[in-house]
Design brief:
Layout: H1 10-16, E1 24-29, H2 38-46, E2 55-59, H3 62-70, E3 75-79
Antiparallel strand pairs: 1-2, 1-3
Length: 82
């Protein structure tokens, strides 16, 4: 499922994720956290993203998707095939 820009949005993943088969997503930092609010910096660090172009693979839980939604303008999200 792709959006108009060709990138999966966190909300699309949330609607397609069932709790019986947890999906894995790949989150990549594409913009810097310089000149961003402290709360966004902490969210990025909590996601495990500390440098530009850093990538983490995580399970798409409600908590992770909520954090991704808060910093969606700083990251790129891809759904991984199981």
């Amino acid at each position: 499922m792709l959006s108009l820009l060709g990138v999966i949005t966190p909300l699309q993943i949330a609607f397609t994720t069932s709790f019986l088969t947890m999906k894995k997503i790949k989150i990549t930092q594409v913009k810097s956290v310089i000149d961003r609010p402290e709360r966004q910096k902490r969210t990025m660090e909590a996601l495990g993203l500390r440098k530009m172009n850093a990538t983490v693979e995580v399970t798409a839980t409600a908590q992770i998707l909520g954090m991704v939604e808060k910093v969606h303008h700083l990251v790129k999200v891809e759904e991984l095939a199981n």
